[in-house]
Write a structure and sequence with these properties.
571 residues; mainly beta; Jelly Rolls; Neuraminidase; Immunoglobulin-like; 41 strands; elongated
């Protein structure tokens, strides 16, 4: 699941304290080792596998460090830590420093553990040698947030997490392909399922629905689904690569990180794509990346590895550099930042300038990937100082594998920062089509505004010829161009805001050549709308005349090319 922090590496020893002896390719024939030993060994034959056995005391951070390719070996080693049952893989590593693996694992249950090493390709022979160091690190002291307490369990593969307005939590389950709703009492129930996709991250949008990022079953592409409070699933955004984070801004817009292309996408609340920003400077392409807005409205990006960035003038700027793997972020209302390190099983606290305050803030019962969320009050939806962490379960045992835990109550320095905003509900769901040259009018409506509404176009544009009246929400005018015109409207009222996406389709009316000619000959009259359309199609001088008739003939394909090429239509 994880690689390893390079700066924790132990220097190789030239003189090995133990020598691997064959056969040792099973648990029963494993070579004994102890903490502090360095084994020197070789892959003597094709398909060779070396097993080691070591006794570890409780609360020990075991460090396994392999040096092979860095010291001239032909070997491409892979390394595994096996539980005392000699079957269960606790940790696996490959290609951490160059081709060499590294494992750091917190042993919480004393016992006899096994270490297995082999060549990735199963190769062996002359030149396939390695050094394997069995080390240990001091266990850090508890942080202010310790001990964490179990809040919800048996969640399979919990990953992303979001706080609901009534004290509930929403948690994605990447193993069970479902979305959990966890009550304020910690009881989990299934809200929605994802049969053909893998749900990743989740956020509550401005209308109270859930937005869930997903990857397809083969992890080739991704998108965003909308899930209602009743569990109905629909599409919010498609055409994305795999995603690494999602959040909602203080204006209600939705931000999604595409880790395939390292692009940051911005959507309107209804799914209208507004913008994309190149964030290739964050380098890492990891599903465990995260997005979060600060109290000042600045967007922060965790690359899921070793850096947290601020988006400044559409460019990521490094804000925090720290040991891998930096995952989820949660701001409090004062701008202090809680950061999860799933690999080390810790939560860190930084001040608003990026200076480290507590490392760890919490370290008990945590195992990544970890996602953080401040909860909201059950009574009124206000933010609380209760901080929760979802545990996928790296380096954990039951009941904390597949769980949600809570930091020690009273240890947070303040209340959490609200993610997103409650948007005003625009009651209008669609707008009528228009006809080029014909009068158009439609009125937008907002539900229960807390003040006098003021309307505007937030993104896109109305069809040419139409305007919106800010005080009434009336869209009116005469469309002058045919086509499909998508746009977003914004309503402000009483300090709150609402958005909705619409499309007005403008078509051309049908006018026969005979009717157009008869009007000019005086035998019959066209309606004002049709005269206006023919003028808009022609010379646009405010009246229907012979020049407009020529343009209509050309549009109908009934004007010979030699005549049509003579020049501009004149009245």
């Amino acid at each position: 699941m994880y690689g390893a922090p390079l700066f924790h590496r132990i220097a190789p020893s030239a003189a090995a304290s133990i020598t691997e002896t064959e056969p040792n390719n099973t648990a029963a024939t494993a070579t004994p080792a102890a903490l502090g030993d360095t084994a020197t060994a070789a892959m003597d034959t094709t398909g060779d596998v070396d097993w080691y056995v070591i006794n570890i005391a409780t609360d020990t951070i075991l460090v396994l460090d392999v040096n092979a390719s860095r010291v001239g070996s032909n070997m491409d080693p892979v390394l595994g830590l096996i539980a005392p049952d000699s079957v269960t893989t606790l940790a696996f590593s490959d290609d951490v420093n160059g081709l060499d693996p590294y494992i750091e694992y917190h042993i919480t249950t004393p016992g006899t553990y096994f270490v297995v090493i082999q060549d990735y390709y199963g190769s062996g022979g002359s030149g396939f040698f390695y050094y394997l160091t069995f080390g240990a690190k001091a266990t850090p002291p508890p942080g202010p947030g310790d001990p964490t307490t179990l809040f919800a369990s048996n969640l399979n593969g919990p990953y992303g997490m979001a706080a609901g307005a009534a004290g509930e939590l929403y948690v994605t389950d990447i193993d069970g392909r479902q979305l959990w709703k966890i009550s304020s009492a910690g009881a989990a129930s299934q809200l929605a399922t994802f049969a053909s996709n893998v749900p990743l991250k989740v956020v509550v949008d401005g209308s109270g629905n859930l937005l869930v990022t997903y990857s397809d079953s083969s992890f080739s592409f991704g998108g965003v689904s909308r899930v209602t409070q009743g569990g109905q699933v629909s599409s919010f955004a498609t055409g994305l690569g795999n995603t690494g984070g999602i959040t909602v801004g203080p204006d209600g817009d939705v931000w999604v990180l595409d880790i395939n292309r390292l692009l940051l996408f911005r959507f309107g609340p209804s799914g209208f794509r507004k913008d994309s920003i190149d964030v290739s400077a964050i380098s890492a392409r990891r599903y465990d990346a995260d997005l979060a807005f600060s109290p000042s409205g600045v967007l922060y990006i965790s690359n899921g590895y070793d850096g947290i960035y601020r988006l400044v003038n559409r460019a990521p700027q490094l804000f925090i550099s720290a040991p891998p793997y930096l995952e989820s972020m949660a701001f409090d209302a004062d701008g202090y930042l809680y950061v999860a390190n799933g690999y080390l099983g810790t939560v860190l606290l930084y001040d608003p300038t990026g200076q480290l305050v507590n490392d760890p803030f919490a370290r008990s019962n945590l195992g990544g990937p970890i996602y953080l969320a401040f909860s909201r009050a059950t009574a009124d939806g206000s933010m609380t100082s209760r901080l929760f962490a979802s545990n996928y379960g790296y380096n954990l045992s039951a009941p904390y594998v597949g769980s949600v835990v809570e930091m020690r109550q009273g240890s947070m320095r303040g209340t959490g920062l609200r993610i997103g905003v409650d948007l005003l509900a625009i009651a209008t769901t669609s707008l009528p089509a228009g006809i080029m040259g014909a009068d158009y009018t439609a009125t937008l409506q907002v539900t229960s505004p807390p003040g006098t509404p003021s309307w505007s176009i937030a993104f896109g544009a109305l069809p040419p010829g139409l305007i919106i009246t800010s005080t009434t929400g009336v869209i009116s005018g005469v469309p002058t161009t045919a086509g499909s015109f998508p746009f977003s409207v914004r309503v402000d009222a009483g300090g709150r805001v609402g958005y909705a996406d619409f499309t007005i389709v403008v078509s051309q009316p049908s006018v026969s050549v005979t009717d157009a000619a008869n009007h000019l000959l005086g035998s019959s009259q066209l309606s004002v709308d049709l005269q206006r359309f023919l003028d808009l199609q022609g010379n646009k001088n405010g009246r229907y005349d012979v020049g407009d008739f020529r343009a209509h003939l050309r549009a109908q394909g009934q004007l010979p090319a030699s005549v049509a090429a003579t020049g501009k239509e004149q009245p």
